[in-house]
Amino acid sequence: MKNKTVLVTGAAGFIGSNLVLELLKNISPITIIGVDSMNDYYDVSIKEYRLDKIEKMVNQLPESVWKFINGSIANKKLIESIFNEYKPSVVVNLAAQAGVRYSITNPDAYIESNLIGFYNILEACRHSYVGGQTGVEHLVYASSSSVYGSNKKVPYSTDDKVDNPVSLYAATKKSNELMAHAYSKLYDIPSTGLRFFTVYGPAGRPDMAYFGFTNKLRNDEKIQIFNYGDCKRDFTYIDDIVEGVKRVMQIPPERKLGKDGLPIPPYAIYNIGNNQPEKLLDFVDILQQELIRSGVLPPNYDFEAHKELVPMQPGDVPTTFADTSALENDFGFKPNTSLREGLRKFAEWYKAFYMREEM
Predict the structure, then answer these.
(1) Domain annotation covers residue 306
(2) What is the pLDDT along the chain (359 residues), one digit of tens a residue?
(3) Which of 18, 61, 10, 57 is nearest to 36 (CA)?
(4) Which of 84, 92, 91 is nearest to 131 (CA)?
(5) Within-domain flag for 292
(6) Among 2, 72, 142, 206, whose CB has the most other CB atoms within 10 angstroms?
(7) DSSP string covering 100-139, please?
(8) Which H or E run contains 24?
(9) Global pTM exceeds 0.90
(10) Structural domain includes residue 126
(11) Closest CA to 208 of 228, 233, 229
């Protein structure tokens, strides 16, 4: 990807910002155009912190270019102008309204960002070939483990049927995969969808369980553990997710013709998960140990008094478990960061970010 222009949407987000940092660090020279709406779905200061890290890094890399644009991918004119001006070779669409529970109370946000926004990206990719231009060489986009719904078969494979979403969020992500397939077939756009499994780590999303639990415990509030603790999640550390995205970006699905002379869709889907689901109660136990170790919570903290076991929430599923064999076979990569190592890094970051004045 040297000397190429990469468009990253959701660039101030958790995965997007870490991907930008990784590309700047290891590929030079490179031009990266970042887009993010900077909405207040969660604490904007975390997004600003992530962008500040990018600015500091790019200031040390005179050969590379970083341009940040504050705007929504649902703004079609904005997306068209970005493609016309910068002509990206690789597009990584990570901008989306995330979260299962929020989709129950705020469905409009999901339709706007995840459907209309993604449609705008697809249309811009399609028109990038007009007039014989090289255009977009690879569109990589975020899907989600949520598309598997309440599938009973585990681990989840990309060969499984995913026709029964249990949340609007999951439905929009499955729709993204269908839309991308149609555009790959019609316009020969190489596209790869990535089903992410419970991404966590430093400067992550505050709406995720590990972050929300930490906030509540620190505020002396009770944490609710859903399905009475009988849930399993395939927690995937942010660095593993970013490494997977980076490898996939560099190898687009091959363009080729079928026996009928028409293009075979250059289209692929991969899981990126840790391939090792953890019980929710074990996860909470490791989290509390690391919060004490890092000094976020005192050594004598009474966790039992702060736990509340509650039923499953609408839209949730009991287990997520990624089959990552396709990722291993095609890219020689498998996430391997242990939950303890990842939560330790989160706890240390949390202490530094939120407790500076107390130190």
Answers:
(1) no
(2) 999 999 999 999 999 999 999 999 999 999 999 999 999 999 999 999 999 999 999 999 999 999 999 999 999 999 999 999 999 999 999 999 998 889 989 999 999 999 999 999 999 999 999 999 999 999 999 999 999 988 889 899 999 999 999 999 999 999 999 999 999 999 999 999 999 999 999 999 999 999 999 999 999 999 998 887 788 899 999 999 999 999 999 999 999 988 888 889 999 999 999 989 999 999 999 999 999 999 999 999 999 999 998 888 776 777 889 999 999 999 999 999 999 999 999 999 999 999 875 54
(3) 10
(4) 84
(5) no
(6) 142
(7) TTHHHH-HHHHIIIIIIIHHHHHHHHHHTTGGG----SEE
(8) helix 14-26
(9) yes
(10) yes
(11) 233
Q: Find how far residue 42's CA is from the centre of its chain.
A: 15
Supply the DSSP symbol for 159: T
Look up residue 71 and give its two tokens. 């705007």
Residue with token string 């970006």 = 249
303 burial level (CB within 10 Å; 0-12, 13-18, 19+): middle
Residue found under tokens 């999303």: 205
Distance CA 243, CA 272 (A): 10
Instruction: Give the range of the structural domain holding residue 47, as residue numbers without chain letter.
Output: 5-197+236-275+320-337
Cα(254)–Cα(244) distance, rounded to whole angstroms?
Answer: 19
CATH of the domain at 95: 3.40.50.720
The active-site residue out of 110, 169, 183, 187 is 169
Strand order in the sheet with 5-9: 65-70, 31-36, 5-9, 90-93, 138-144, 191-196, 267-272
- What separation in angstroms does the CA of 201 have from each of 17, 61, 123, 242? 13, 26, 33, 12
Q: Would you call 183 a catalytic residue per the annotation?
A: no
Report phi then psi at 171, rounded to 5: -65, -40
Q: How do beta strands 191-196 and 267-272 pair?
A: parallel
Examine residue 38 and state whether it is found in any structural domain, yes or no: yes
Among all chains, which residue has been given the structure tokens 């960002």? Answer: 113
The residue to which tokens 């970051």 are assigned:
349
Q: How many domains would you assign to the chain?
A: 1
